[in-house]
Amino acid sequence: MDNSPLQVLTVPTAPYTDQRPSTSGLRKKVYVFQTKRNYLHNFIQSIFSSIDLRDRQGSTVVVGGDGRFFNRTAIEVIVQMAAANGVGRLIIGHHGIMSTPAISCVIRKYKAIGGIILTASHNPGGPDGDFGIKFNTANGGPASEAVTSKIFQISRTIEEFAICPGLRVDLTTLGKQMFDLENKFKPFTVEIVDSVESYANLLRNIFDFAALKELLSGENGIKIRLDAMHGVVGPYVRRILCEELGCPANSAINCVPVEDFEGQHPDPNLTYAADLVDSMRDGEYDFGAAFDGDGDRNMILGKHGFFVTPSDSVAVIADNIFCIPYFQHTGVRGFARSMPTSAALDRVAKATKIELYETPTGWTFFGNLMDAGRLSLCGEESFGTGGDHIREKDGLWAVLAWLSILATRRQSVEGILKDHWLKYGRNYFTRYDYENVDIDAACDMMEDLELMIADKSFVKQRFAVEDKIYQVEKADNFEYTDPVDSTISRNQGLRIIFSDGSRIIYRLSGTSSDGATVRIYIDSYEKEHIFQDTQVMLAPLATIALKISQLHHRTGRSGPSVIT
Hints:
Domain Alpha-D-phosphohexomutase alpha/beta/alpha: 20-160, 198-303, 328-424
Strand content: 15-25%
Protein name: Phosphoglucomutase-1-like
Largest sheet: 7 strands, mixed
InterPro entries: A-D-PHexomutase_a/b/a-I, A-D-PHexomutase_a/b/a-I/II/III, A-D-PHexomutase_a/b/a-II, A-D-PHexomutase_a/b/a-III, A-D-PHexomutase_C_sf, A-D-PHexomutase_CS, Alpha-D-phosphohexomutase_SF, PGM
GO molecular function, one term: phosphoglucomutase activity
Family: Belongs to the phosphohexose mutase family.
């Protein structure tokens, strides 16, 4: 066997112009990474080059993914390039699999300089699906816009990358693997770790596992149904909910991660998690939840498939936050929601006199507030909820938070939510997604829409639908000044706010690799009529939203791809 030091090479390359990452990372079709020469290598080198050499030398980096197709191929390249770029240690999840919340946890636990997460989240996988690469920084959260911009600028001018092509790692064996490299004084270390244990231990210190075990497996326990959608969270559900908290094994379905998610869309909503919704309808189960590909999103259901909107979910957790022992010890520093999320959380914040922050979409904004000690609980309408225990949204944490509330209050999900509406009133909320729209048509529509609402004459305009009249009170393109560092984020979504507080919001989403996704959000508050059908209650505002934007005409779409 050859024990000579492994060779480090510098390989010439040519840049690409389309490697601009969002805070959700760089997402492309798998074939882009497979067929474009050095496409993966360029982007990984751009990540490493964005880190100061002095910080990089001898540092620790965490690597893991949601198990989708191309995951193992990408990890092999990342390992070879990390070694060549001076990283001292890589911590990698067993078999290369680790959930996004767990990676955030491990970055923080081991004081790593960051982590590389291989996921396209809730987007489809497989050879014809999507692949993504996301960089999280030392706080465990998504890279800021300043960091992603730096990565992009490097990717546009890159001329070479460093790699150690002879380095081979065994992802199947737990423990440390050491490698000697030429011209390196210290060996390069790869540590393959149990993907679940550090994260599970964190949850044990947040929740009352004894109370949860009694709820789930005690004499008067409830029956639950959890759908991992063949994503990364399956092993976490089995280990924590089934083995430790005593749920029957058949409570958890689709728990084996599969490279193509069995051909499904690993997106926990009423459309893509329809099997779970159907299984809840007959009332056999008291509580249901689904998770996305990388485990950071969640959907909550009650008996008979009673749907809890993500906006209501974070509001209910906020109102019952001391059902979670962690917050009994730390107190509550603040609440936050993304701008498109309904204002249900605002009402809890006002009643409890806790500071409320309205941020742009993207978890990095929440992380900044958490790092400054200003935020404890936050959520997004896009099925993301989390606390300040890590710097990512956390699907399993949200489920355990809900189960903690059920254990304390001993009510049904529906009963808890209806009590909440009786106490605070109800924010009816819906989102229409128009997926894979021609990007030029979508951009043109948004530009014309912004010009329309920016005109001074637009304010005070009245729109009538049947017997409802809505008058525009404010219209703008949302802009956020971070209260921590005063950075300004512009162009975060077009808002039309009516005199009764109802809102229509338009955004172009940046998390799809295929065309554009146009999103319309509708939020309307009711104090009295709180038990009505959401789509019926919001139909007048939906009509106005389509009339103002002319979306169907401008995009050629007759209706949304997904309604949530």
